[in-house]
Amino acid sequence: MLIERDEQLARLRRDLQSCEKHRQGHVALVTGPVGSGKTHLLDGFGTWAAGTGAQVLTAAGSRAEQGLPFGVLGQLLHGARLAGSDTARVEELMREAAVAIPAAEARWAAADELPAEGPMWPPLLREVFAALLDLVDRGPVVLVVDDLHHADATSLHCLLYVTRRLHHAPIMVLLSESVTLSPANPLFHAELRSRPRLSQLALPPLAVAAVARRLHELGGGSGTAPSGEVVQEARRLVHTTGGSPLLVQALVGEGARRGGEDGASASVPRAQDAFGRAVLHSLYRHEPEARSVARALAVLDRPASQELLGQVLGVLPDSVASALRVLQSSGLVDTDRLRHPRILQAVLSDTPAETRQRLHERAARTLHEYGAEPGVVAGHLVASGGTGEEWAAPVLQDAAEQALSAGRPDLTVAYLRLGCGAGTDEERREALTTMLVSARWQVNPLAAAGDLDRLVRSARTGGDPASPAVAAVPYLLWQGRAEEAAAAVAAGPQAGAAGAAGAAGAAGAAGAAGVKAAGAVRARVNGTVGAVGAAGAVGAVGAVGARAVGAGGPEAAGPGADDRGAGTGADGRLQAMRLLVALSHPDFLMPVRTSQSLWSRAATAPHSVSPLLQSVSVLCAALHPTDEVDSTAAAEQFLQRHQLDRGNRGLLVAPLLALLYAGRADRVVAWSGTLLGRPEVSHTPAWRGVVRAIRAEAALRLGDLAEAEKGARAALEDLPAPAWGVAVGGPLGTLIACATEAGRHAEADRLLAEPVPPGMFRTPVGAHYLIARGSYHLAMGRYQAASSDFQRCGAMMRGWKMEAAGLVPWRLELARVQISLGNRTHAAQLLREQLHVPHGLDERTRGRALHLLATTAAPDHRRKLLAKAVELFQSCGDRRGLARALADTDKVLRQSGEPGRTRHFLFPADDAAQGPEAAPWARQTPEWQDRPGKPQAAAEGADRDDVLSEAELRVAVLAARGQTNRQISDALFITVSTVEQHLTRTYRKLNVRQRTDLPSWLLAADGHQPRKVQDKVS
């Protein structure tokens, strides 16, 4: 038993010993809150007293038996009869008295209210005391009555009679009672406390030191002080329970059970039930009024004043104050709220559904009157399911807007589902439907289809920026309904004006705009406006957030935003939607996309345009690269500025794609990891899936097949394939590429059998998918099918005038087919065309082109091309491209009779190429299998003439980079003399005379050297 009541137990023992010594009676009253250990104390004392020869008679009051005459007295007399006393006469008088007491009086719970009059009472009281005196002759008598506050009134009268006659009888009366809402039997207590020999013992909550000692003992410690960890655990237990022995013991028992179970059989729910049962055990030993207050606190789940609780429950604040005092004393409440979430959960789970619904309804009304936040009130409205009152609809709309801005579309859906059913006008219902489409799309795009159709049918036309038709554009694009989307944004007086930001690439975009009717002349769009499409090689579509003010009002676009500059306000939103159509479905509105002056200013403007317009303008700059706009810098700046905007997560998709297409896959991995680490991401499966798909493609470009496959699969788990719409080719194409690269052709074939919407091939995502499918055909030796896919991809890109190499370098893939067919001249022509694509030729694409071109070049030129390819792959971080290039370099050097020169710098490539996900070429190339294998082997043979030691290699690499001996000394923390010695041995082994003769392949050996820009996103 976890009970630290030694002091109180010792005092009771002294009282009994005094009774026996002085032949005088004694009364002891133990008080404490529910769960404070009163019953354990009485049981422990009774056991000890019986062991000393005392005769212990026990009884316990019960709320259910308060109307039963002589209930407690009957329990005591039963014990006396067992002890050998003749109680027959007393029991007969009790029966007569019980019949004589009117039924109404028998139901009286207070001894103060029951008149002890009538001819049956005097003989009954005398016989009761005489029966006890019979026992005294054989030793001291102890009368133990637990839960005195529940004792019946008739028994209390008899107990008072006994206590008045204890002057010369060794009888100890031990009583216990709990703290109640109001003092029970005040006249009884007044007379009891007037007894000269009375002890009052109050049981306080357990202290941290007491709990720590008990934990220390349970852990097997003895004779030493508890450790700091034990004290910390004791402090946690006391904080959770308020020091209630009942609750502390339940938590300690949970820990003991978990510690005694193995990992396979441990049952967390069963362990948690122990504490929940203890909470309910405590709660049900309080009056019903206290339970009502506890349930109201659980429903409110926030600090609540006595006045607020009184209005929710419909009672006076004074009654609430008494209940709070009682609940706090038992450890359930801490001042003005339930002490711990587990206590709250236990109380809620025990509250009947109809009671919870009624409390939520009253809480919503009361909190609304108190001016609480719309989200708080809306939560109670949703829980109650009631929107009958006129004030409910505006509150639900305000709460939905706030939840959408805070990145909680799940809450937005709950609020709007209820709000749309409320009695609202048509304009407000239309605004709520618009927001509902946005929120549902972010949770599951499939769930938004029905609402989207209704929204399109009821939408106004004419190119109005605040029109629901414009708000529906991203969702229409996501579903491949490009004609409807183009019609929604092409109408109106500004149909041919500057447009500008949109979702690029591989998928149409999706998002949402919430329109709030604030009167007959003003509408506000507030929400997450659909997102930049998954472009090219990724095929993910996200959600781009924007806030607009309709009817000519300014858009909240950040510092300096107003309605005077181009691209601000509702006009900027309409421009962004037009460019969104042009980027996600490039056959539509091409002039909007190809007119550089229309979006280049928006891409580089710091704050003068809307975030939505700037976001997709940055992506457009990456897809249509020019000298005027540095898309990489613009994307990083935008991400840094808006990464914490919880309600505008979709804005960040376009800059991520821009970095990907600019060849900075390493920055995509860093930024996507930061964004996915935000807590609100767990509430937006659509946005999370989009970012994971982009990250997977970035990992694939870095040669990390395992991470790429993991990310693409996670993206398809966030959203099932049918929910991706035309963007499904993004994660699906990445998985196909991973399976093909790893040689799992059966798996790639199964993935290609997955159905895809026909509209996907009208988007850049379709081009990404075609590249993956063509690569699979090439790996299977189906050259005609591969060439057909790559040529179709090229025709799409040329027709769209979207030749960004980072999107889909189709010429490289077609060159691979020609090389496989032996048409090296045609392949070289394609590769040179790729190398001369104006702008946008990222390091990885250039490295791949040079590597493939080396296979068509003469041996002398091949080494130079491979060396440059190695440098580019190392710079961009493509590990598998680097491994391939190094393997080919090794082969070329072996053919020229210089195998030893590549042995050292092939080790980093070996690490990238091996493992369970290694590509077939890495597992099958003989040169890799025959190498010595590990750096340790090189170190062991460091004295050989054809092998550089690790120290020599480090020095040679820095020397090849042009550093002086002093700079090398500072960089490697060695002396200049040591540098000179290493260089002397290196020159001899490599057969060169000076540092300018060091071969260029030494640069590739520097696998540990960081890039110039490798800082992580904080």
Automatic annotation (TrEMBL):
Q: Per the record, a Pfam family?
A: AAA_16
Q: Which InterPro entries match?
A: AAA+_ATPase, AAA_16, P-loop_NTPase, Sig_transdc_resp-reg_C-effctor, TPR-like_helical_dom_sf, Tscrpt_reg_LuxR_C, WH-like_DNA-bd_sf
Q: Which GO terms describe its cellular component?
A: cytoplasm
Q: Which residues cross the membrane?
A: none
Question: Where do the segments described as Disordered lie?
Answer: 896-945
User: In what residue span(s) does the HTH luxR-type domain sit?
Assistant: 941-1006
One Gene Ontology BP term is: regulation of DNA-templated transcription
A GO term, aspect molecular function = ATP binding
Q: Which UniProt keywords apply?
A: ATP-binding, Nucleotide-binding, Plasmid
Q: Could you tell me what this protein is called? A: AAA family ATPase
Q: Tell me which species this is from.
A: Streptomyces genisteinicus
